[in-house]
Amino acid sequence: MAFLIADEDGKAGEGHIVIVKGKDVSNGTTNGETNGVKEEPKKFGPPGMKCEPRNLYEGKPDNRGRTSWTTTYPTDIDEPAENAESAQYALIVRNRKCYDGRRKLEIDSLVVQSPLLKKFLGEVLKGYPGITTSLARLEFKAPFQPFVHRWERFVKLREDITDDELKAHVDLLWNTLNEELGDVIREKNDHIALGVSTFEAVWTIFEPGCIVYTDDDGHRAYKLTRGSYGENRCSRFYALNCQYVDFDGENFGYGSETVAIGAFSGTRAITKMDAFPLKYHPDHENVATGLIAQGKLFESYKGHHFKHYDGVATGFGPFGPIRYSVNSRIIIDTYAYSRFNPNRKVHLDFMKPSSKSSKRKIYDEDELDEDDDYTDYSEDEDSDYYDDNIKPKNTCGPDALTAQQHLICTSSLRGYSLKDKKWLLFHLSSVKEITWNEHAFSSLVAPPEQKDLILAFAESQNSNKGSFDDVIQGKGRGIIMLLSGPPGVGKTLTAESVAETMKVPLYMMSAGDLGTQPNQVESALANILEMNTKWNAVLLLDEADVFLEARSAHDLERNKLVSIFLRLLEYYEGILFLTTNRVDNIDAAFESRIHLSLTYEELDEASRRHVWTAFLDRSVNVDRKAFTEEDIAGLAKEKLNGRQIKNILKTSGLLAARQNKDLGPGHVETVLRLRRQNERRNQKSLEA
Fold first, then answer.
1. Are 285 and 297 in contact (CB under 8 A)?
2. Is the pLDDT of residue 464 over 70?
C-alpha cells in the first residue's frame, strides 16, 4: 500500500517524505513520476454532461483593479434586503445619503408592491410613455418625473377616494413623495404661475406626450417622446426627442427629430425659449387651429403636384444643409425625391390608422395615449377643443389623418425646382398656385396651321399616352418634334407655349446638364426621361446639335453619346422638343425617330410687327399710347429676330427708368441708333 505526504497544492514538495510501496522516494519526483512510478491522472466525465451548475464568484481585485473568477465563495456578503418579509409592505423606499446640506437622506427609488396602489397609479399615469403599472415589480427612480408631471392629477384622484383601505395606501405614497418632491413641486408651480423657468427646472414643464411648439424656421409642433439633459463642447442643453407626421411618398408615418434648448442663466419666459409646450402659448387655441389647417394642406400634397415657389429652400451638400433662394416652378414629389436621392430616402415609423370617431379634439394633453397614436380622446360634448369641421378623408389607407396628427405634421415638402434643377426641401408657406400665361401660344409667330399641328400632336400624346406600342412593348410611345431654324425665330418659345397651354411642367435640358462622359450622359438622361414621364412634362432639349449631328468614323466618343441618346429615346413615353440650327447635318437614325419636323424661317416684316406689338403690350411702365401704328411699322423694318427685339425693349426700359419716365419711342430709337453705330464699327473692323 502506498502513502503520499504532500503539501497544500497536492504535490510532493521539498522536505516532504513520499513513500511508495514502503520505499523512501522523497525529492526525486519529476513530471508526475515518483522514482519511475507514474501518478494516476484524475479522471473526468464527458464534457457538458454533468447535470449540475458550476458556480464561479468574482475574486478580489489585484493592485491594478483587475479581477478574475474563482470557485471560492465570498465571505463579505449581506443577506438580501428584499425577501418574504419585505414583500408584505405596500411600499419599499430605498434611501441613500444626501449631500445637499438640507437632509440626511434622500430617496433613491421606490418599489410599489400594493395591488391597490398599482391600480390607482394606472389612472394617475394613464398614457404616460414608458410606464406599465400592472407589472409585478413596479419601480420608480429619482427624480420621479412621472409624479412631478402628473402631480395635480395625483392630488385630484386622491381627493376622490372613498375606500378607506385604498385611501390609506394612497396616503402612504403621497406622504412619502410629498416629503421628497415638495420643493420641486412648489418650484414648478411658482414658475408656471409667473410664466418662467430656470434651465435646471425646465424638465418639469415638459411632460412626455405633450405638444411642443417652436417657431424656429416656421411654425411647427411636435409630440414629445422624452427629454434629457446633455452637454457638448460648447455648452449644456436640454434635448427634446420628438415625433412628427411626415409622408414617405407612399404612406404617412412618424418621423423623429431632436429639438435642443440651450442652457441659460437665471429665469427665462417659457414662451421665449427655443421650444415650449403649446399649452403655455397665450393664444394656444388659435395657434393649434392654424397648425391643423397647415397639416391638412400638407396632407393634400401627397402624390406629385406642379406649383410655383417663392422663398428659401433647403438642399444638402457634402458639408450639410445649404439654403437657396428659389423663385421657380416646382414639382412636389416625395416619392421621386427618395427615388433619385437614395442617401436621403425618407424612413418613417408605421402609423396605424384610426378607427375611432371622426370627431376629434384639437389637442388635450391630459388625454394623450401613447399606445393609441393620438386617437384615444374623451367624447365629452362640452369640450371647448372640439372642432366639428375636422373630418377625415380617405387619403391614407382606411382613414385620413386625425386632428392631432394634422397638428404635428411637418411643414417641409420635398420636390424639384425646374429652374434651379435641384432636389430641395420647400417650406409649405411659400408654395403658391401657378399664374398661367393664357396668351403664350397666341404670341408665337408661326403659320396658324403649323401651330395647330404642334398643339394637336402634344394634346393627343398627353391624353392617349400608352395607347400605342411598337413591336416591342414599351417602345416608341413618345412624341418627338424637331424644330430647326436660325436663332430668335421662336423655336424655344414653341415648346414653352405648348407647356403653358397644356398646363404641364416644362423641363429645359441642355448638353451641359448631361455631361460629356458616356456613363454620365446615360445616367443623367435616363433619370431626366424617367422624371418627365412621371410628371407628364414637356421636355425641351435646346441646341441639341451635339446629339443630332451625324456620326463619323473619326470621333468614337461622340458616337457613343449619339448611340446612348438614340437608345434611350426609343423608350421615352413623353413629349420631346429638339431644337437645332444645323438641320442639314442631322444623323440619319434620328430622322426615323422624329414624328414632326418643322423649319422656322427668318422673321419677315409682318412677323416682326407682331413681335414688337406683343412685347409692348406685355411691358410694364410703357407709354403705350405714345407708340403709334407708324412707329411700330418703322420698328418692324429693322431686321431683327425675336430675341433681339426683346433685348432692345429691355434696354430701353432701363434707360427710361434712369430718367424716371415711362418707356416711349424715343428711348427705343436711342438704343437702335447705338446698335447701328456699333454694327458699323464692327463691319469696318472686319473689312480692315
1. no
2. no
236 vs 264: CA distance, rounded Å? 9
Tell if the pTM clears 0.85, that is, is over it: no
| Res. 111: pLDDT tops 80 | yes
Q: Which residues pair with 70 in a beta bridge?
A: 57
Contacts of 118 (CB under 8 A, 6+ apart): 112, 133, 134, 138
Give residue-wise pLDDT tens across range 245-297.
999 988 999 999 999 999 999 999 999 999 999 999 999 999 999 999 999 99
Task: Give the position of cell 440650327.
Answer: 581
Gap between the Cα atoms of 165 and 180, Å rounded: 23
Q: How far from each other are the two terminal CA atoms of the chain, in whole angstroms?
A: 134
Here the cell at position 211 is 405638444
- Determine contact, residues 186/178, Cβ cutoff 8 Å: no
Please give the grid coordinates belonging to residue 345: 430616402
Mean pLDDT computed over 671-680: 85
Give DSSP secondary structure letters for 494-532.
Answer: HHHHHHHHHT--EEEE-HHHH-SSHHHHHHHHHHHHHHH
Three-state DSSP at 151 gives: helix
Sequence-ordered alpha helix ranges (H) in 536-604: 545-548, 556-569, 588-591
Question: How many CB atoms are closer than 10 A to CB 445?
Answer: 20
Handedness of CA 162, 164, 166, 171 (dihedral sign): positive
Q: By the 8 A CB rule, do 470 and 504 touch?
A: no
- pLDDT above 90: percentage of residues in the chain: 32
What's the CA dihedral at 507, 512, 514, 520 to 10 degrees? Answer: -160
d(CA 411, CA 427): 6
d(CA 290, CA 281) in angstroms, rounded, equals: 13
pLDDT at 468 over 60: no
When computed from its CA atoms, the radius of gyration of the chain, rounded to whole angstroms, is 41
> How crowded is residue 374: how many other Cβ atoms within 10 Å of its Cβ?
27
Residue 9, pLDDT > 60, answer no
- For 406, residues 6+ apart whose C-beta sits below 8 A from its C-beta are 245, 291, 292, 293, 294, 295, 296, 298, 299, 390
| Contact status, residue 151 vs residue 178, Cβ threshold 8 Å | no
Question: Which has the closest alpha carbon to 35: 12, 1, 8?
Answer: 12
Q: Which of 570, 566, 577, 510 is nearest to 537 (CA)?
A: 577
CB 527 within 8 A of CB 568: no
